[in-house]
Write a structure and sequence with these properties.
By secondary structure, the chain is α+β, with helices and mostly antiparallel strands. It has five helices and 14 strands.
Length: about 270
């Protein structure tokens, strides 16, 4: 306190000057309408700018919450797509009765770990067995196919990425409808994959490659587009190079595909294979 009094006493002339200066400015603004209006406008601009910056900062802090909400909403909307329904068509007395049954639902999950530069890449998500995740479920994102659930605990799951040397999925040319097998070769980069087709297929450069509906996913989920055509040795198969639609380095949210008929289908197929 003593040091503060010494400081004020030492610079008393400066403080008196500030007091008189501020007082004169206040009187000048208060009793002159033009200056008063100018001051109020300037004050409003400064205040508005500060409020905008504070609002932007608050919005930034709530981005995670907003992203979670949007991801949940997207999962709900995906479940309403026509491709998520099983169509049971019955013709009776020349009347077609079409009943739509929900076949696919989607569980949203956040990516908490992800590798992209290995020969066998995996993704960790923050959903597990208690959330309804099971092994061998398909995983997608807004851009296309991501991979398949390889292992699961109560609260987490490991996804075998599309960028895995042993990843193999049924895929289809979007226009030609020819069905083949999608694989990823580790000497390719994370932006390219391969589709093996029968040699009677007619793929075109730039043609989209999508899921066939024969495996874990509904029909029409993108893998990417054809970027190169060349025949595999022996000429028995066409080896089509695909530019992947998913940028795996930027994955934040994914959707785990729940096929309600998967157990029934695999059980029936297992009996036939004996």
């Amino acid at each position: 306190m003593r040091n503060l009094l010494i400081f004020i006493t030492k610079y008393n002339a400066f403080f008196l000057f500030l007091i008189f200066e501020v007082s004169s400015l206040l009187i000048y603004i208060k009793y002159n309408s033009f200056q008063k209006a100018t001051f109020i406008n300037s004050q409003n601009q400064v205040t508005g700018s500060l409020f905008a910056q504070v609002s932007e900062f608050k919005g930034y802090l709530s981005l995670k919450e907003q992203n979670d909400s949007l991801a949940r909403e997207n999962a709900k909307l995906r479940g309403m797509l026509k491709t998520s329904f099983y169509v049971d068509t019955v013709e009776k007395h020349k009347v077609v009765d079409t009943v739509y049954k929900q076949q696919y639902t989607y569980l949203v999950a956040r990516v908490i770990n992800n590798s992209t530069n290995q020969s066998n890449n995996y993704i960790t998500i923050n959903r597990g067995r208690k959330d309804g995740i099971a092994k061998d479920m398909g995983v997608i994102c807004g851009a296309g196919v991501v991979g398949m659930v390889a292992d699961v605990t109560d609260h987490f799951a490991i996804v075998k990425s599309l960028l895995h040397s042993k990843s193999q999925f049924s895929a289809m040319l979007a226009d030609d409808k020819a069905v083949g097998s999608f694989t990823w070769v580790s000497n390719l980069d994370r932006h390219r994959g391969l589709l093996s087709l029968q040699n009677d297929a007619r793929p075109k450069l730039g043609e989209p490659v999508v899921t066939s509906g024969y495996s874990l996913f509904p029909t029409g989920i993108p893998f990417g587009k054809i970027t190169n055509l060349h025949a595999k040795e022996g000429g028995l198969l066409l080896n089509v190079e695909i530019g992947l639609s998913v940028d795996f380095a930027k994955l934040q949210y994914v959707y785990v595909v729940v096929n309600k008929f998967a157990q029934e289908q695999t059980g029936l197929e297992a009996v036939q294979s004996k």
